[in-house]
Design a protein that fits this description.
The protein is mostly helical. Helices cover 65% and strands 0% of the residues.
Length: 265
């Protein structure tokens, strides 16, 4: 305890920006490893294109312009088809992006060595990385805050702990990676922090997003209910159990109806 009390606290602004730079570099490193070395898009049952085609409603078949990626003709399988948040978001962004912007990005990246994996150009992969990068940043930041709360740690110690958490993400994966995985990590880390900090509204928002992202979000609800119950907010715990549980069931019923014709279980 004395060592922690004697920890030198650096100037706030300089400290925050310095660690933001460190976390940003670490997130870029994790993103590159995640996308290109750990099995991304190697599973025929849940590729980025097949999931976006299903939830984004933007099937292009074999036709492709210089600024557009060829859509996979593979059919997304269950249960991967039920992880709708990221594919739907990519599909919405793809539709909302003017063709001029896509052409400009294609001209920028496809003729340079800055991003050689975008040759041929894949706008959907570009959008995925734009979503995944802040997910990793958010996960590291939430891990830092959770560590500080759980162990009463100072800013330096908690920042180092969050960095180790961020750099350790690639070690979790052994087989295939899927487009929804960065959001799963970010939302899970955020819900853990919300439980520790007793931020109930924040937890509810993250839980709702997590329900759209993956069915395993329900595993976080009993933890929140237990933590809220023992903290003395029993009525809130029961109300949250009913409302958030009902929301999870409604989302699963909707996804089941939308994907029941797809192969898999």
């Amino acid at each position: 305890m004395e060592a922690r009390q004697q920890e030198v606290i650096p100037p706030a602004n300089a400290f925050k920006w310095a660690w933001f730079g460190v976390y940003l570099i670490a997130s870029l490193f994790v993103l590159y490893i995640f996308t290109h070395y750990l099995g991304m898009n190697r599973s025929n049952h849940g590729t980025l294109n097949s999931m976006v085609d299903f939830w984004g409603g933007n099937i292009r078949g074999d036709s492709a312009t210089p600024s557009g990626s060829k859509s996979s003709l593979d059919v997304v399988w269950r249960p991967f088809s039920g992880r709708m948040l990221v594919p739907w978001l990519i599909g919405a962004l793809e539709k909302a992006t003017p063709q001029l912007v896509q052409d400009t990005l294609w001209q920028t990246f496809s003729k340079s060595q800055f991003h050689p994996e975008f040759n041929p150009w894949d706008y959907r992969l570009f959008l995925f990385e734009l979503i995944a990068l802040p997910c990793f940043l958010f996960a590291g930041y939430m891990a830092r805050k959770s560590y500080a709360l759980a162990y009463n740690a100072g800013p330096v110690e908690s920042s180092v702990a969050g960095l180790f958490f961020l750099l350790g993400i690639p070690l979790w994966y052994r087989y295939f990676l899927y487009p929804y995985d960065p959001a799963t990590i970010a939302l899970g880390a955020g819900m853990a922090y919300a439980i520790l900090a007793r931020k109930h509204a924040f937890f509810a928002i993250l839980f709702a997003l997590a329900c759209l992202n993956k069915e395993t979000a329900i595993l976080a609800l009993p933890v929140w209910v237990f933590a809220t119950w023992i903290s003395g907010h029993r009525r809130l715990a029961l109300l949250g159990l009913v409302t958030m549980g009902a929301f999870w069931v409604a989302v699963r019923l909707y996804i089941r109806a939308a994907t029941q014709h797809l192969p898999g279980t």
